[in-house]
Design brief:
Layout: H1 3-12, H2 15-47, H3 51-100, H4 103-107, H5 111-153, H6 155-202, H7 204-209, H8 213-239, H9 241-266, H10 273-276, H11 283-305, H12 307-324, E1 343-350, E2 359-366, E3 371-375, H13 382-389, E4 397-402, E5 405-406, H14 412-416, E6 419-422, E7 431-432, H15 433-437, H16 446-455, H17 459-462, E8 472-473, H18 481-495, E9 499-503, H19 511-524, E10 529-533, E11 545-550, E12 553-558, H20 560-566, H21 569-576
Parallel strand pairs: 3-10, 3-11, 6-9, 9-10
Antiparallel strand pairs: 1-2, 1-4, 4-5, 7-8, 11-12
């Protein structure tokens, strides 16, 4: 979907609001344009000493001004509502896209860049839309109706204004075209700066503990200087639009004044060319026309004055549109799984990079209740194995089956609903303890949440908190790493899935708590399948099968006793941890 098509899609959803906007802007502009006309008439009546007509026109002007103010208020109110409705649609669509694209699309982008889509770019679009909607709709209508009123007052002067108008438009367009490239570059640099900021703020404890604050500040400052220079050029070039068009409009205004005076001078002579072509002009008429000439130029000036916001909004919208055009995670399967008993890997090959094979001819049969451990050095493919098991990535060849059904025939959400996973890196969001545990199960009762917390032995610290389960916590405040891990483990017990995946789930927990949680794990996994990625080999001695991975190959396979007696790679790894 191109930028124009996507924008029109949002507009089509707001037809009733747009209709109201046009109604109120029409009355607002009409009131503004009738006022100068009536002021000119009042001036002519005053010069002719017609007091009654003068008073009537003054009262009429007052009523029209009040109606114009009311129409103007409603016009801006509905413009603001329209813009926020569009922005909500856009924000929803961006967030939906983030949660529905493949993991690879997220991993290849900077986190700050993604944050920029949701916050910075959408804010730019919001500001630009309000300015453009207000200025553009009001401006086009004002220009059209002003031309009509100028022709009513004096068509010769009206023709003169229209003939000179393209000069102002040409100047504005020329400068806007020059500044567009700089605004596009500015938007890209803002995303890069957001990425740097996000990374440093997210890891501020590491930045300070390693004493690399100066280096982080230097990197930020260098990027900030580049952004400053491009922003300065962009804003400076855009700022020339307004004074340039004002200069042209002022020249046009002066010419109209001179020609208008000439018409007034020639009007009393009944034999003059002016009267013969019915182009006579009174003093009040000239006053009205000069007011219209001034108003005629304002829409051009207002549109040009928001050109910087428009260019920024356009650049941001293009960035958002490019992101929204990314394909969602492909889901070829249409079969649902209500449970998983047996899992089989059949000659599976996989690589992130086609030129660098990672997992090679991997085969394994996992029966219900099996306890599988995966060990190996960093980069051996342990986490990758989990990624393809949950179908975050498509395998290159071979197959993975669940109860003899190919992974390619199973709907992805249905597949993943049968798994629960606790990673080494925990995720806690801003909310209460209760909300954090119940995140994986919206309809969980208080009793289920408390039971899960007790199984994870999280109740030992929750009961000491000021408000217990209603205590507010966040990712950076309120809990230690071990306590956060217990919350993540409590989510697992709340789900009670068919297959449990643990990636060093107890790495941040003290030895005593690890023993207690391990006993709880043993209990929940009595009838369930478990897959454990382990670095501390002492935690997997009871596993039914231990897979030893190296460079994507399973080089050893068996239980702990068998592998120790074999005295191969596993034996070397195990022994090295206890030297």
């Amino acid at each position: 979907m191109n930028t124009k098509t996507r924008f029109l899609k949002y507009i089509k959803n707001e037809k009733s609001l747009i209709a109201l906007i046009f109604v109120f802007v029409f009355f607002y502009v009409l009131a503004n344009l009738l006022t100068p006309f009536l002021v000119g008439k009042a001036l002519d009546e005053a010069l002719a000493m017609n007091a009654n007509n003068f008073i009537f026109i003054i009262v009429l002007i007052s009523i029209i001004c009040f109606a114009g103010v009311l129409a103007g208020y409603l016009f801006e109110y509905f413009v603001a509502k329209l813009v926020q409705n569009i922005i909500k649609q856009l924000r929803d669509e961006v967030y939906f896209k983030i949660t529905n694209v493949s993991l690879n699309e997220i991993y290849v982008r900077k986190k700050g860049d993604i944050v920029q889509y949701v916050i910075g770019d959408i804010e730019n679009v919001s500001n630009g839309l309000f300015s453009i909607f207000k200025s553009l709709i009001e401006g086009i209508l004002s220009i059209t109706m002003t031309i009509v009123m100028m022709f009513i007052v004096n068509y010769l002067l009206a023709i003169l204004v229209i003939v000179l108008t393209p000069i102002s438009v040409f100047v504005s367009r020329f400068i806007a075209k020059f500044s567009h490239d700089h605004f596009k570059k500015q938007t890209m640099l803002q995303a890069d700066l957001s990425a740097i900021s996000f990374e440093n703020i997210s890891n501020i404890d590491l930045v300070q503990s390693y004493d690399i604050v100066d280096e982080a500040n230097k990197k930020f400052d260098e990027q900030n200087k580049i952004l400053k220079n491009h922003s300065r050029i962009a804003l400076f070039s855009a700022s020339w639009v307004n004074p340039s068009t004002r200069l042209v409009n002022n020249i046009i205004y002066g010419l109209i004044g001179v020609f208008g005076i000439i018409l007034i001078v020639l009007t009393p002579d009944s034999t003059s060319f002016v009267n013969n072509i019915h182009a006579s002009l009174s003093i009040g008429g000239l006053a009205s026309f000069l007011s219209y000439a001034n108003q005629y130029g304002k829409p051009f000036n207002e549109v040009s004055s928001v050109m910087a916001e428009f260019e920024t909004a356009l650049s941001s919208f293009k960035r958002i549109n490019e992101f929204l055009n990314i394909d969602n995670e492909e889901n070829k399967g249409n079969l649902s799984l209500t449970k998983i008993d047996n899992i089989s890997f059949k000659n599976v090959k996989f690589s992130y990079d086609k030129n660098k094979e990672l997992i090679k001819n991997f085969s394994l049969d996992i029966k219900k209740g099996d306890k599988i451990a995966i060990v190996g050095p960093t980069g051996a493919g342990k986490t990758t194995l989990i990624n393809i098991l949950l179908h975050f990535y498509d395998i290159n060849s071979g197959d993975i089956t669940f109860d003899d059904v190919s992974i390619n025939n199973i709907e992805k959400n249905s597949l993943r609903n049968n798994f629960a996973m606790v990673l080494q890196e925990t995720w806690i969001f801003s909310g209460t303890i209760k909300e954090n545990i119940a995140y994986v199960k919206d309809d969980a009762s208080d009793e289920e949440i408390i039971r899960a917390a007790k199984l994870a032995h999280a109740d030992t610290f929750i009961d000491r908190l000021p408000k217990g389960y209603d205590t507010f916590v966040s990712s950076k405040d309120g809990l230690s790493e071990g306590e956060k891990q217990m919350i993540a483990i409590a989510r697992l017990f709340l789900l009670n899935p068919d297959v449990v995946i643990l990636d060093e789930a107890t790495s941040s927990i003290d030895t005593r708590s690890e023993k207690l949680i391990g006993d709880a794990f043993d209990k929940i996994m009595e009838n369930n399948t478990s897959i454990v990625i382990a670095h501390r080999l002492s935690t997997i001695q009871k596993s039914d099968v231990i897979l030893v991975l190296k460079d994507g190959d399973v080089i050893e396979q068996g239980n702990h006793t068998y592998l120790m007696n074999k005295k191969g790679f596993y034996y070397s790894m195990y022994s090295s941890q206890f030297k």
